[in-house]
Amino acid sequence: xxxxxxxxxAFVAVARTQSFTEACAQVYLSQPALSxxxxxxxxxxxxALLSRTTRAIALTPEGEEFYPVAQxxxxxxxxxxxxxxxxxxxxxxxxxLAAMPSFAxxxxxxxxxxxxxxxxxxSVTVNDVIAEDVVDMVxxxxxxxxxxxxxxxxxxxxxxxxFDDRFVAVVSPLDELAxxxxxxxxxxxKGDFIALQRPSSIRLLIxxxxxxxxxxxxxxxxxxxLATIGRMVATGLGVSAVPxxxxxxxxxxxxxxxxxxxxxxxxxxxxxxRRRYPLSTAAQSLQDIVQRSAMDLxxxxxx
Length: 303
Prior knowledge:
45% of the residues lie in helices and 22% in strands. By secondary structure, it is of the alpha/beta class. The protein folds into three domains: 5-88, Orthogonal Bundle (Arc Repressor Mutant, subunit A), CATH 1.10.10.10; 93-163 and 268-301, D-Maltodextrin-Binding Protein, domain 2 (3-Layer(aba) Sandwich), CATH 3.40.190; 164-266, D-Maltodextrin-Binding Protein, domain 2. α1 (5-17) packs across α4 (61-88) and α6 packs across α12 (281-292). The longest helix has 28 residues, at 61-88. The protein is rod-shaped. It starts with a helix and ends in a 6-residue tail after the last helix.
């Protein structure tokens, strides 16, 4: 069945006005074009919807049944079209993203503030989850944008780098290491090391990098949360290493952060999206703001 909106609008206009002349003015059609639209509609549905006489136009019983349905259909179409136009104009809409907690708690609030100033009617939902879950949420289509470490090559994901995040040493203010400006890994590992539990990507990166240099991490304590690491270090339970995105958080928890070298470890932070799935206008606009802010973002990770 090949019924067009033009045909339905023509029928509704005639049924409402009971006049071909008035209906023509409402739907901006000539009388021959209006008549053809009604005729084609009736042919598609298999029977007459209008009863025409020389004096009046009336609905057939089938036309009476179809008229309110056609009205609702046109109203829902118009509402849907208006909503779509508003979304493209960013006067309405919603964008969902996932970000690892270190980014969500440090850099993301300013980005969302800037976004909301430009598009106050677009709602933003933030999922602050571990780096691995950010990737999974993007891959499964739960969110459109993810901000996390580089997940590596993938056929179904795209990664747009923002900046390099270096690892820093975390020590207690009372620790002798706090007197140093730069701490070598070998010296840091002589303390009681506090590590994230496997399968944390941060833990695996540290272990693999140090293994290449003949160094080994033997954690005295393990935990799931970076905040717990900061608090444990601050109370003198040991030392640790975290991405510099966590600088502010570590300091707020009472720990000290120092440059870490031999080796210098870093990891790219960027935006993860799904390949072959175009972003909504709202999500694309948010991604643009994040990328424009990339230069300013590095201020948050300077010692």
